Structure formats: C-alpha cells, structure tokens
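#lab-general

N.A. 3:47 PM
ok so I finally got the sequence cleaned up, no stray characters, all 130 residues accounted for. can someone with queue access submit it? mine expired

B.Y. 3:52 PM
send it over

N.A. 3:53 PM
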Amino acid sequence: MPIAQNPLSVEVTLEREEVALLKVEGYLDVDTATEFQHHLANQLHHGRWHFLLDLSQVPFMDSSGMNIILRVYQEARKLPGSVHIISPTPAVRRVLDLTGVSITVPVSESVEEALARVDAEPEGPQVPEI
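B.Y. 4:20 PM
back already:
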C-alpha cells in the first residue's frame, strides 16, 4: 500500500465549548480535502459553530481546500457561527486574496485576534434590514 505523498494532519482543540481550533499541517488539496471536511463536519455535529482554521503549516492549498472552507463558512453562518483563517502561509494567503476568499472569510494573525473577532460578532441570524 503506497504512503500518501502529502499527508494531512489536523489537530483539533476546543478554545471554548462552541469554538473549535483546527491546526492544519500539510497540503490542503484534492487528495486531502475530504479528510479536512470530515474533521469540520465532526465539529459541526458536536455543536461547534465557530471555527478557527490555523493554516500556518499549510504550504499549498488548491481549489478543493478553498471549497471546503467556503462550504463550512456557509454552514456556520446559518447557525449563526463563523469561520476565521489564522496565519496562512504566503502561498496560501496569495490564493485566498486572488480568489477573494479573504474578503469573505476573515483572516487573523493569531488565535487571540480571531477569538476577539468571534466575541465582536452579533448574536442571532444575520438578516438584512429592509
């Protein structure tokens, strides 16, 4: 059985009862996106609705990784929750900026900064005013 070329490691810790910090290490691409999605779905299933995604150890991310982040962002916003990207590597930050994902999904430099953003978010569903 061949060993994965670019294995993915995801370490999940709970910053608070409803806030999951996922430290991702390795390539976030078509070969590893499903594993990443399972980690996020598991956290949603267990009642987490705020996701802090530490991408400081992700040297490469393709559209598969971006799609997973955008999907969990859409799911979290319905709860209402949030997704925050923390310390993306320069290559990943470039992809996020070029595709406009960094406009939609907040990017923070630290866990503390992301938690402050979670605290500043309004409670309840985000309904536009008429």
